[in-house]
Amino acid sequence: MKVILVNGSPHKNGCTNRALEEIQMQLKKEKIDAEIFWIGTTVQGCIGCYKCKETGKCVFDDKVGEFLELAKEANAFVFGSPVYYGSACGSIISFMDRVFFSGGEYLADKPATSVVSCRRGGATETFSQLNMYFTINNMPVISSQYWNQVHGQTPEEVEQDKEGLQTMRTLATNMAWVLNSMNAGLEKGIKKPTREKWINTNFIR
């Protein structure tokens, strides 16, 4: 089994990455492969052209396409972001908008969660913002002992957030438990749920 940990920060080795490293370390202790995927410093936002619905692929050839190829074979996901002005940074939102719009079927029914890093405040708002992507895509959301956040302005300061790092380890342990439980269920013949055809309505009459 494999989990992809998405580093949505423009800083490859910053605070968000430190949180993901703690999760990666614990997942490996649980005998689950874990890869950190950095989205880079700039990600094109979705332009709503709907070409992906015709071709199955986004018109922009960048990290989104690279990630979706990995997502096809992955079993679970963690998306991480720093807090910018009380919300997720622009690059991770652009990334997730396009990932879920053009390739949501590769993530559906797979466990996911988000983690956030902040200096002081805005973590819970960002955490809620990121989780919205999972709950609209039939993805089981993995929780921990506290909201998934670490505090610090540098990776060295994150090291001092003992509870935050423990929350990351607990999150990884819970992720491993859910993945192992799902795998055991499949071995016993428990299939994914059969769902109704989507009723797509709006409020314009």
Describe this structure in words.
The protein has 205 residues and is an alpha/beta fold. It is 42% helix and 16% strand. The chain contains seven helices and six strands, in the order E-H-E-H-H-E-E-H-E-H-E-H-H. The chain has helices at 15-29, 51-55, 63-71, 90-103, 123-135, 155-158, 162-187, and strands at residues 2-7, 33-38, 76-84, 87-88, 112-118, 149-151. Strands 1, 2, 3, 4, 5 and 6 form a six-stranded mixed beta sheet that branches. The longest helix has 26 residues, at 162-187. It is globular, with a radius of gyration of 17 Å. The model has no long low-confidence stretch (mean pLDDT 97).
Name a few traits of the molecule.
alpha/beta, six-stranded mixed sheet, 6 strands, 7 helices, 205 residues
The overall pLDDT, averaged over residues, is: 97
- How big a fraction of the residues is strand? 15-25%
In percent, how helical is the residue content?
40-55%
| Broad structural category | alpha/beta
The biggest sheet, with number of strands, parallel, antiparallel or mixed sense and barrel status, is: 6 strands, mixed
Indicate the overall shape. Answer: globular
Total number of β-strand segments?
Answer: 6
Distance between the termini: 47 Å
Q: Compute the number of helices.
A: 7
What is the H-and-E element order? EHEHHEEHEHEHH
- Radius of gyration equals 17 Å
Unreliable runs, pLDDT <50, ≥5 residues? none
Topology:
Blueprint: E1 2-7, H1 15-29, E2 33-38, H2 51-55, H3 63-71, E3 76-84, E4 87-88, H4 90-103, E5 112-118, H5 123-135, E6 149-151, H6 155-158, H7 162-187
Parallel strand pairs: 1-2, 1-3, 3-5, 5-6
Antiparallel strand pairs: 3-4
Helix pairs in contact: 1-7, 3-4
